[in-house]
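Researcher: Re-running this chain for the archive, since the previous output was lost when a drive failed. Same request as before.
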Amino acid sequence: MTQLVEVSKSRRAYEWIRERITSGSYGPGYRLVLTSLAAELAISVVPVREAIRELSAEGLVTFERNVGARVAMVDAGQYRAAMQVISVVESAATALAARHLTAADLTRARELNGVMRSGLIDLDSGAFSALNQEFHRTLYARCPNPRLLELVEVEWARLGHLRDSIFSFVPGRAPDSVCEHDALLDLIAARASPEEIEQAVRRHRNGTLSAFLTTTTTEGA
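Model: Regenerated structure tokens:
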């Protein structure tokens, strides 16, 4: 029974810390002091330490000698490489899926984008990123090529926590992203050519990549 309680506490600590990392509350380089975290969660250090180990295995946390645990720094090179691939495979998947989308799919996508627009005033980057992923998945999920779909999902998984928190690094990109979603939906609804849709998605994804790289370059200057 004691072991089950510890596992439950460890899981609670894991989810609590992970949410703060992906939401941007604990930014890259933030020091994770186990005793402080345990006190905040009103549990012992043991389940917190186990949660940190799990987060480390996911690449969200790193350990430094004589420092301890920190939130992992952003790997701009990893993000650039993954987004370059995603801009190609996701745009192709969306273009192929366009003619298979139903009216309900397009309605759902517009609803998601509407929720995203309503959240711009008081931006919750984690929630915005999750809605953004759901929006795009709605548009490419009906791609008739299963191998292409698999490649899209693999590349998004490769990004790890950045997939869930990218707008915490480039919050200024969010309004443009919502407007570009509207334009993309209009193209699909108008039955634009697959080439036009593919290029629109690629420009959209490259816009986020450019904003991120500009931000990281400026911060590193």
